[in-house]
Amino acid sequence: MLSFMKDTLGVIMGGGAGTRLHPLTKLRAKPAVPLAGYYRLIDIPMSNCINSGINRIYVLTQYNSVSLHRHVTRAYSFDSFSGGWVRILAAEQTPRDEEWWYEGTADALRKQLWQLQVMQPRNIVILAGDHLYRMDYSLFVQFHESTQADITIAAQPVTASAATSLGILKAGPEGDITAWKEKPPAEDLASLASAEGDKPYLASMGIYVFRSDALTKMLGEESGTDFGKDIIPAAIEKGLKVVAYPFNGYWEDIGTMRAFYEANLTLTRADPPFDLYSPEWPIYTRPRYLSGSRVLDSSIRRVVLAAGSRINNATVSDSIIGLRGIVNPGAHVRRVVMMGADFYETRAQLEENRRLGIPDMGVGEGSVIESAILDKNVRIGRNVVIRNHEGSEEIETENYVIKDGLVIIPKGVVIPSGTVI
Length: 421
Prior knowledge:
By secondary structure, the protein is an alpha/beta fold. Helix content is about 20%, strand content about 30%. It is globular and about 70 Å long.
């Protein structure tokens, strides 16, 4: 491990309400949303930290945090000789701060700054909990140290069409950031170009390294609640050394439903942009004690099957089938993100389903599911049809939501046999 990494603290922001991923965030925090049928979103920054040599990590939580807390405590523990740990900092009311609810990313750090200062870190790496990417943070921090920066921002080249929805920074030849604008209108883009070509703009990835004293200074002097909108522009204005760290690898912000859906489906490709099977940079998560997936007399094309799933005489293509996911005979599943189930039903529970007249968990016989997200523990009856709703207006009902052309079935919902959506 590089010596300066021992003095580096990781902070993962996990407290946002995640409204753009509703209803997946109706019962859970955004970083706890399942990914690729096996992981949770928070496993990505956690794994990047561990693989990069950052083993002191805080996770800041707020909304719907129970399942996130449960996952983090079950998945991540370090042995007593490593000196590493993962600690959760939940929003709380204290004598120090009666206005305890986090109001933004910077406000969350401001309210918990005293906790961070106890560790006396040299640098603090601040990470989002809803991005899909691999990054060696040791190279990131090394760049930060070599430039003697107060703040270093991971940045990626983007096109003009993408620039208007991101935080755009302008950097000089040495990487020093001279201008910053959050979601700039198209007419302001010309003055923000940092290079030539089809991707002339540098977009902030929402990934920062702060020198500890610079973070303390900015949070103490500024009242703004968000890093991108308030703290970073103020730091540039005050003359702090703010530097861009160029990152050209795969990175996807999966904070919207469409982005989340497409990022999952890209994992089913023969050569996906994000490799789940890298031996050099594994993705960690909570271990489960499940048998391998079982596939009987089925057509399976470009599918990620998580452990414990069962496909019987069905057709599945371009889809994710999550933990304990069940697809029954005659069903057709295409371009579906199926999150699976938290448990298998016992024989007694299956008999109770018959008595109550409700479907078992999973996709029922003869059902056709297309362009949909099925949250955990859903029950899809026989001969149900869920189809692509591209171009439809957004709809929210008790049993399903239509958003970005996708049908989302919330966690635990029962869709009766013969339903057409």
